[in-house]
Amino acid sequence: MVTAVRHLDLEEHLTERDVRILEDLERFRLLTTRQLQRLHFPAAPLGPHVTVSGATRGTTRVLNRLEARGAIARLARRIGGIKHGSAVTIWQLGPAGERYLRARRGEPRRRRYDEPGLTFVAHTLAVADIAVSLLEQAHAHRFELLELELEPASWRSFNGSGASVITLKPDLLVVTADAATETHSFIEVDRATEHLPAVLRKCYTYQRHQRTGIEQQTRKLYPAIVWIVPGIDRAQKIREAIAADRGLAPGLFTIITGEQTLATLAPYGPSSPFTPKGGIT
């Protein structure tokens, strides 16, 4: 009964946009103030704010209000920004927000929200930034975003040897489209924290999954496997490691830097014949 009262009290103070913010924090797990601004408070010409700084001020006001009601919570840990060594505020769903969303769905299970480690935070925000960029492009009508699956929705389980079950865990599954084409991609966001043997093991898991044909049964193709890495040196090392491993098919894997992300994940131009783009059909 206490939970029901608290749920109704919070609901009376939430706008539709507030609810979408809570849903995104649940979906992405972590988002910065800037990422939330890009998603929900776009500047002109996509939104009412004339400047990005004005949009950011509006975002901060709303987030502070939601924080005061326990709907969202900021992490004690902050990460360095790009300019002048500034730090960015990172947000996650708060206890009241989690109860509210759970009550809307009629779910009794409660999730614990602990302070995550720095490696997890950095990786989660890097994945979120790619997703936010794709959503921005779709909102600007540069292409359609047909599918955007984050973990764990992006995971795929399949049978291994014997009775074992293997779970492939892509960071993202993305399908973009225009009038002529579709692009299907499994995405791995690499921050150069994993040793190359771990990267190769993940490549083998993808290859085993591709050879089952499960994904192709519904898509008629296997999505491109795109590794997004911090820089050219890391990209070259992964390419060379894959090429040197005789058990891997190099054509399955695309290794790019962050600057190449949108060009790689976007669909082909409208002048091309319709071709669903992926790894192997």
Count of folded domains: 2
Tell me the span between the first and last alpha carbons: 54 Å
Mean pLDDT, to the nearest integer, reads 88
Name of the CATH architecture of the largest domain: 3-Layer(aba) Sandwich
Order of SSEs: HHEHHEEEEHHEEEEEHHEHEHE
What's the story with the biggest beta sheet? 6 strands, mixed
Low-confidence stretches: 1-5, 270-276
Helix tally equals 10
Secondary structural class: alpha/beta
State the helical fraction: 40-55%
Fill in the CATH topology of the largest domain: Trna Endonuclease, Chain: A, domain 1
* Shape annotation: globular
Strand residue percentage: 15-25%
Radius of gyration: 21 Å
Total strands: the figure is 13
Q: What is the CATH class of the largest domain?
A: Alpha Beta
